[in-house]
Amino acid sequence: MDKAYKLLSLQKRISHSKAKSLIDSGLVSANGKRLTLARTLLEPSTNFQVQEVAPLRIIAQSGDLLVVDKPAFLESYAIQARFKGYELLHRLDKETSGVLLLAKSKSQKALEIIHAFKARKVEKTYYALVSGIVPESSTINAPILTKKDKSAKSKVHKDGLPAITHITPESIVGKKTLLKVQIETGRTHQIRVHLAHIGHPILGDSLYGGANAARLMLHARAICVLGESFEAPMPFSLC
After folding, report:
1. Per the database record, which ranges form the Pseudouridine synthase RsuA/RluA-like domain (predicted)?
2. Structural domain boundaries of the chain?
């Protein structure tokens, strides 16, 4: 037995630091199961699979607004760093893909969209692949409390902030459901926490009890703000 990062380093002929970084980023699976700890002890015969991060795609760029299709495993702030002079107008979790908005820093467009987010005048549509059968549409109205240390984790709690999530089943295959999800609020990990709370965690969500998958199966499909709509194609399907 040896530590996962050392075995990966040997097999892929990369440095220990690179191997650790790949595992910490959620890009490595061992014998078909995603690794979450670089120091996990594994057999030398372990078969590793390493995912590649999909390319970043620009959906629209007009005036002071920039809209991109964020790939899974790329931090929102890393995208902001690629476009000097632009600021994030909202964020997506590292493993969540989809529509992400940026604008020229301190521009009128940035101020207008930030105000729209605060006023809950932005329509956001997500798709999530979850465990179990969700037979009908429903609304999850449960307050969320977030604790932040080195990382953030949230939970449904009576002392939390108001959080409202609407879900609609799009298709069901076996014991998995593809959900259309719309949120009225934007709490940390809101969709992930709410779906886990009702017993249907998102596949690949190791933080909130989701079954093993290559990635967190959550995608920001569309955003409508200030009369404009932007969409990002689905990177996964229910199969």
Report:
1. 87-197
2. 2-50, 57-119, 122-238
pLDDT digits (tens, 9 = 90+) for 140-184: 999 999 998 777 899 999 999 999 999 999 999 999 999 999 999
Give the catalytic positions in this structure. 93
Q: What CATH architecture applies to the domain 57-119?
A: 2-Layer Sandwich (3.30)
Q: What is the separation of C-alpha 74 from the centre of its chain, rounded to a whole number of angstroms?
A: 10
The answer for residues whose C-beta is within 8 angstroms of residue 189's C-beta and 6 or more apart is 93, 144, 146, 152, 153, 154, 207, 208
Pair 146, 187: CB distance under 8 Å: yes
Superfamily of domain 122-238: Pseudouridine synthase (3.30.2350.10)
pLDDT tens-digit readout, 86-121: 999 999 999 999 999 999 999 999 999 999 999 999
2-50 folds as 3.10.290
According to DSSP, the β-strands at 218-225 and 97-104 are parallel
pTM to 2 decimals? Answer: 0.86
3-state secondary structure 163-224: CEEEEEEEEEECCEEEEEEEECCCCCCHHHHHHHHCCCCECCCHHHCCCCCCCCCEEEEEEE
Apex 114 CA angle, 152 and 202, nearest 5: 40
